[in-house]
Amino acid sequence: MHSLRRISPNDGRHYFFGYYDIPAFDPSGRFHLCHRVGFRDRLPAPADTAELGVFDLATGGFEIFGETQAWNFQQGSMLQWLGHDGDLIAYNDFNGADGFHSVIYSFVEDRIISRLCLPFASLSSDDRFALSINFSRMYDFRPGYGYCNLPDKWRDEKQPTDDGIYLVDLKNNSTRLILSLANIASAIKEFAPVADEKLLVNHITFNLGGTRFLALVRNFPVAISGGKDGTWNTTVITANRDGTDLHVLPTKAYASHYHWKNQATFAIHSDGPAKHQLYEITDTENASLSAIDRTFFIKDGHCSYSPDRSRMLYDSYPDESRLQHLYIYDLAARQGREIAAFHSPPVHPIDIRCDLHPRWGPDGKCVSFDSTHEGFRGLYLMQL
Q1: Exposed/middle/buried for 41, CB within 10 Å: 0-12, 13-18, 19+?
Q2: Which of 1, 229, 235, 335 makes the best surface tag, with the fewest CB within 10 Å?
Q3: Which domain of life is it from (predicted)?
């Protein structure tokens, strides 16, 4: 049996961290970041604020340090620890004067260190750079991942030449467009069926060294017969930090959750030689896909390597019984096991759902996750 406890209180409010692949724990493993909101039954509106806080896992205490108006239920405000000393915290925010921006806060000094010119989607491990994308365009595509505060300035453009992926220098607070959506469309047109559609970057993440990044490029669904929206297709690209040396990876039209193993290799649930599977891919110009375990990783889940890269943490969407499953997979032994399952009540719209989004503790001995199995959105800790 694995020890399980709810970190957050049952006080009529809702607590969650957000995504599965960003640092929720400080490097010591003692402190855990969290969002606190007053509702979970609708999408956030522009005036809705999420409080930002830290749980002390040793004492059970909870301390609010800030708030944000740039948040959603899937990734929150991209709240995360920055650096390796357990001091700096980064998150996205919005206000009328600055628009969307990001904030660097000192946990030790209890003060905001800086406000950066753009919201971030990924931070480099050397604390020098951030990647930014258009969160308003994201909201039009998937409200659970974008921000509702401002309309997309390029809403009527399929592939704008002046919007796409931006590189932010955290030291001097400068930014530049490194890949426009028009650039990306041109690069993928020989490989992807979506190159002529309205495009966006849905997910983007630096590799472990911060030298390259991976991005999921998707198309807005096109209306099909009966007036219904079709599905989107996904093209996986990688590029150097400055946008050069772009690779289009052979994942066909389906690709979903991913996680970097090191500077060159990552796992991704995608289409490939064994159909929809969790594959390992090495980031080269002629990359090939290697299925990790064809019998275990058939269904899509949020995947993450353990800190020592010996195990894979994995979850599931609700099954026919509305159960979300949590798994640990031993990569050397090629064996996986379920460690827990939790009921997930149905919701509408789908973008307010609560995925488990499991996250490793820094020592690999515990995981945290979000869940609504007790009738409210809560934050949980499991010892392995």
Answers
A1: exposed
A2: 1
A3: Bacteria
* Three-class HEC string of 263-290: CCEEEEEECCCCCCEEEEEECCCCCCEE
CB 306 within 8 A of CB 324: no
- As given in the structure block, the two tokens for residue 327 are 């798994």
Largest CA distance in the chain: 58
Q: Reply yes or no on whether the pLDDT at 230 is more than 80.
A: no
Residue 59 CB neighbour total at 10 angstroms: 8
Q: Which residue has the tokens 């704008």?
A: 160
HSE-up (13 A, CA, CB side) for residue 361:
17
- Nearest alpha-carbon partner for 51 in 66, 38, 61, 41: 66
**Mind listing the pLDDT tens digit for each residue in 31-45?**
999 999 999 999 999
Domains of the chain, residue spans? 1-115, 117-248
Regarding pTM above 0.90, the answer is: yes
Question: What angle is formed at CA 15 by the lines to CA 357 and CA 54, rounded to 5 degrees?
Answer: 95
Q: Please, are residues 287 and 249 in contact by the beta-carbon 8 Å criterion?
A: yes
Specify the pLDDT at position 228: 53
Helix%, strand%, coil% for the chain, nearest 5: 5, 40, 55
Residues, the chain, total? 384
Type of residue numbered 106: S
Cα–Cα dist 306/304, whole Å: 6
Q: How confident is the model at residue 229 (pLDDT cuts 50, 70, 90)?
A: low
Q: Match 């000192």 to its residue by tokens.
A: 106
Q: Hey, what's the torsion of the CAs at 48, 54, 55, 59, to 10 degrees? A: -140
CB 288 within 8 Å of CB 281 = yes
Among residues 6, 80, 15, the alpha carbon closest in space to that of 50 is found at 15
Q: How far apart are CA 136 and CA 142, in angstroms?
A: 10
